[in-house]
Write the structure tokens for this entry.
Amino acid sequence: MTITSDPASSGPASIGPVELVILGFAENRFTGQIADTLMDLVERGLVRIIDLAVVVKDASGDVTVLEMREYSEELAEAMVALTGDLVGMLSEADLADIAETLEPDSTVATLLFEHVWATRFAEAVRDSGGALLMSQRIPHDVVLAARDTLIAASKD
């Protein structure tokens, strides 16, 4: 997947780590309930939404891509409030690649966001000549299984 940037956009001089997250919703059960929690993170200055799109594949395999500009006026205004200074980094080709991998009757929410909370730390690493060598998100179910295994082992 290629992430493209809009050279006309002007972002902050210093930027924190940026992450692409694709959240899957089987049977097209995406209701948008995540919006309130996401808005809370944005309002508290923890994250900045750079780009946001929802890709829907219906049961017959037809794909619809909902980007901020394609929502109802009320929802579009809410999404603009989430966006911050940077927009349009996910290209149509990126979203088409994502759609190609979807099973019929499923939805994904695609978020590209900056971890604002980590900006100062990232600057300190760069200023001291450091560089990110690896970053990996550990899935929730793996963390829970490891936790349960440790707890069980401690009782033996």
